[in-house]
Amino acid sequence: MSIRRIDVGPRMSQAVVHGNTVYLAGQVGTPNQSVAVQTRSILAAIDGLLAKAGTDKTKILQAIIWLDDMANFAEMNKEWDAWVPQGHTPARATGEAKLAGPEYNVEIIVTAAI
After folding, report:
1. β 13-18/21-24 pair status
2. Each residue of 54-99: pLDDT tens digit?
3. Domain map of the chain by residue range?
């Protein structure tokens, strides 16, 4: 089965397609912005990467969301709920983690079908 890499960098690819599945790298938002702005920019990046892979958010199988502070859960969820198509909600987990730097509050990783 072939492997196709999208937006390949020296350390990682932003997406990898294997068979009928696409795996996205963790996406972070615009640094030093609110949780809402960061979440919206992440979701837009996910839309773009899924389109490059030949799929869309209705085919997301799983989402893993990392927050720098669970106190930001409601603010992130407000953006997520406005974006995710009802009836196509994926399996999802959300946790608190130290992210790449203090300028980031949210990181989202998704796996989707093609």
Report:
1. antiparallel
2. 999 999 999 999 999 999 999 999 999 999 999 999 999 999 999 9
3. 3-113
pTM over 0.70: yes
DSSP string, 5-22: EEEE-SS-EEEEEETTEE
Per the structure block, which two tokens stand in for 58? Answer: 């209705």
Architecture of domain 3-113: 2-Layer Sandwich (3.30)
Residue recorded with tokens 């980031």? 104
* CA–CA dist 85, 64 (Å, integer): 17
- Bridging pattern class, strands 3-8 and 21-24: unpaired
Q: What is the DSSP letter of 72?
A: G
Please state, in angstroms and rounded to a whole number, the distance separating the CA atoms of residues 6 and 34: 28
What is the rounded CA–CA span in Å between residue 75 and residue 89?
18
